[in-house]
């Protein structure tokens, strides 16, 4: 069985690699989050192991990927030296299947991996979102408002899923680039702005529908449910003209 591993600490990587090899697993290491996301698009793995050496921010690309990912049959195990209940909750609520603090005993890590592999057919991924009259179905790739279907392109749907799965949280352009386009933020920046403009227009987002998509150029984009939004120091909501 093959395991995709994203670990930035060389000493931890070597330890995990040896533990996996002795248990009969093949370890496929990825040196960055971008490399991991690209690898997952090209290959199928039995399990994904991600190490978080520090507490991530809300718009961390891996956290966003966990909420957005389409690899529903592949369990994800996250390890971290950070002993923080908030981090554990964030990781598990975002879509990870298990969380292990390190340092850990090899026997515990392998036992947890085997437990996750046994539960593959039983796992229940978040496949539907309902918010303020909007409904998204990731399995059927459908989007509607109060029962009326709205046609979206695959990337528009992925963008909508990212926003609606994380209301109230700013999603950076870098995170969107890596999660949806698998590109650097400066490469996809203009493309992101155009897609956000078109998504606003198709969904008719605004106070009349109870949902607003904010733009803060220093932070990214944030979906807000009217009446629940927090005050912003700086926000810009002017739409861009569509490209011909």
Explain what you see:
The structure is a single chain. The C terminus is likely disordered. The chain has 8 helices and 11 strands. Strand 1, helix 1 and strand 2 form a beta-alpha-beta unit. The longest helix has 19 residues. Helix 3 packs across helix 7, helix 6 crosses helix 8 and helix 7 packs across helix 8. It folds into 2 domains: 121 residues, Rossmann fold, CATH 3.40.50.2300; 98 residues, Winged helix-like DNA-binding domain superfamily/Winged helix DNA-binding domain (Arc Repressor Mutant, subunit A, Orthogonal Bundle). It is α/β, with parallel strands linked by helices. The strands form 3 sheets. A 5-stranded parallel sheet has the order 2-1-3-4-5, sandwiched between helices. A 4-stranded antiparallel sheet has the order 6-7-8-9, covered by helices on one side. The termini are far apart.
Structure, briefly:
This protein is an alpha/beta fold. Helix content is 38%, strand content 20%.
Give the % helix: 25-40%
Structural class comes to alpha/beta
Give the mean pLDDT.
Answer: 79
Q: How does CATH name the architecture of the largest domain?
A: 3-Layer(aba) Sandwich
Distance from N terminus to C terminus (CA atoms, Å) equals 48 Å
Q: Major sheet, described briefly?
A: 5 strands, parallel
Radius of gyration: 19 Å
Give the tally of structural domains: 2
CATH superfamily of the largest domain: Response regulator
Q: What shape does the CA trace take?
A: elongated
Q: What is the fold named in CATH at topology level of the largest domain?
A: Rossmann fold
Task: Quickly name the level 1 CATH class of the largest domain.
Answer: Alpha Beta
β-strand number: 11
Widest beta sheet: strand line-up: 2-1-3-4-5
